[in-house]
Amino acid sequence: MTDVRVPTLGESVSEATVATWFKKPGDTVVQDEMLCELETDKVTVEVPAPAAGTLAEIVAPEGETVGVNALLATITEAGAAAPAPQPKKTEAAAAPQPAAQESKEVKMTDVMVPALGESVSEATVSTWFKKVGDTVAQDEMLCELETDKVSVEVPSPVAGVLTEIVAPEGATVMASAKLAVVAEGAAGTVAPPAQAPAVSPAADVPPVTGKDVENAPSAKKAMAEAGLSADQITGTGRDGRIMKEDVAAAVAKPAAAPVAAAPAPAPAAVPRAAVSADDASREERVKMTRLRATIARRLKDAQNTAAMLTTYNEVDMSGIMELRNTYKEQFEKKHGVKLGFMSFFVKACCHALVEVPEVNAEIDGGDVIYKHYVHMGVAVGTPNGLVVPVVRDADQKGFAEIEKEIAAYGKRARDGKLTMADMQGGSFTISNGGVYGSLMSSPILNPPQSGILGMHKIQERPVVVNGQIVIRPMMYLALSYDHRIVDGKGAVTFLVRVKEALEDPRRLLMDL
Q: Membrane-spanning regions, if any (predicted)?
């Protein structure tokens, strides 16, 4: 027998109330699995199982006040000692004996939300690839999470059977939250049938409560004294359980509920216009993905915050096209990557940013941060939306390094494998709408950056060169910039320097 005792509760705390038991006598428990929850004046304490085995007896029931080191329960450890307590149980109920022995080998493993990346605290469960009862192999993909920018696949930590899905599709989960439970090993195949009896007693429970967690005893007492109902209080305890401090907070701010309720209709302030039944039957409503919602929010924030202005110019692409045609085969043979146009634009922008550093800066409160490096964001279109991976220290890299990084980012973006680290820290962005046939557009800033260059379609047009009308491959360029930090002179100068470097790439070599 192993005793389960009240742990140390903290300095100057000598007693606690048993709030909830998560197990009942006869249940199989694994080491460190939560058995019960204690409530002190200030905190909630979870009590784990000190050993694996069967919960033999609960000494301190829910609602009882216990002191430090008091006996809460006893556990019959798995192994040689396991059969000993079994005869004691047969007097009351002989049936549970084989069930306990059968499930003894099953180890339940929680599937948790993995690390989502710096500054990302939540995600949406987009797809479950498995359903309850399915057999899973270790590292097999169970589900896919969607954050503001990337998709994260969640593999199974062990081989076994998926016994429970805690967070269904569409649910928003916090970092390190529980997603599912897998019954580990071959014995896991017993887990799905064992799930059925657990569900059936719930049918006998009246559905009136709408909540299957028990509020803390001290919270019930405090609610009765304050004349409040559970519906008026938001619980912060485990699974939404109302704690004593939740009641105290509600009593301290009695007017908070009606005031908070007033703004609730705001999202519906501009309702969608009514449509006919015929039109409605031919429409499809799809929930906006977190990525698309983030793109919308960030772009609108940029319009609302920055004093955004766009200046235009055009560039004759003859020089680059001639240089590229001359060396593309040798370039690919030596470096293993194709020579595209993007590396020329990245190098031209890095060259121009040296002369006009404010385009590479950002505003932080009342300060301007000038960056003595260029982390070049390169916008990439994916089936899920626009993402902007960053080529770090692009000003210190050659054409081959830049082309390799852009190609690798493009592949990872199409496969949904970009990480948060890939898209953070950009200081300037290039967006190429020309690949989709755009002739001219005004790109929107990628905050907190102060500049973004828009590339467009290369189109042959008549232009005047040395007094003669000739046909040249021309491209319109657009620089959108934050007028709060970049003056018109600086923006025009930047775009002219980019144009000069592209029309005569030798200037890049000569640093002119």
A: none
